[in-house]
Amino acid sequence: MLTRRIIPCLDIHNRKVTKGVKFQNNIELGDPVEMAARYYEDGCDELVFYDITASAERRPIDIEMVREVAHAVRIPFAVGGGISGLPDMERVLLAGAEKISVNSLAVKTPHIIREGSRAFGAQCIVLGMDPLAVPNDPRFPSGFEITVRGFREHTGIDAVEWARKAVDLGVGEIVVNSVDADGTRAGFAIPLTRLIADAVPVPVVASGGAGNPQHLADVFEQAHADAAIIAGMIHTGEYTVSQIKADLVKAGIPIRQTW
User: Fold this and answer.
1) How far is CA 61 from CA 13, 26, 149, 224, in A?
2) CATH top-level class of 5-250
3) What tens digit of pLDDT does each residue of 129-157 get?
4) pLDDT by residue (tens digit) across 30-47?
5) CA–CA separation, 82 vs 53, rounded Å?
């Protein structure tokens, strides 16, 4: 049985880790390299870094930060934000990241998925999607619409339709970040995550809403997620990665033990 992955997410703004609710009211939490090293030492399986304003500000990702993280950890990590094409993808990978996350760029220019997959391998290309619940809207058979640019823009694209198209284009993994659950710490969007996981043959990562270890157990057991992203629950110090993993072991969830 494949082990489930625990992935701390670090949202970056002005070279600081920040956290808010639905990208609003963000507060600074610390240095991304120091926090990455701490989570690595505590046993996380992967890391993901999002420069949350790079795309909106039309500036590239902080490559020096990527290099520093690569020197500080020995686990895979993904980088998103400020990616505008293949040259940016190549720079990020050469700086030490294993994966590139595309979100708004992929919606605007879907062919970037195919180009990235052909150039670097499907395993390097992660689709980040931000679905918003739109119940009873016949335009969206799944009940969820894709949003972009930090939840600020509606696209008119159905979430399941987009997930399937992205896989056909060559994406190797999908991160499903629920707009409605983001930052709430009230639990993952189980129906949404399962909807996407059951619709595509690639790994699906649940994101948005993690508040305690039981939330992770639920999304693994009920939504068929291959991995779960956590942020606020560890950034605040309320939980540690090792504590979360210990609780998941007690719940019978297959995870990579590091103790």
Assistant:
1) 11, 19, 15, 32
2) alpha beta
3) 999 999 999 999 999 999 998 778 899 99
4) 899 999 999 999 999 999
5) 8
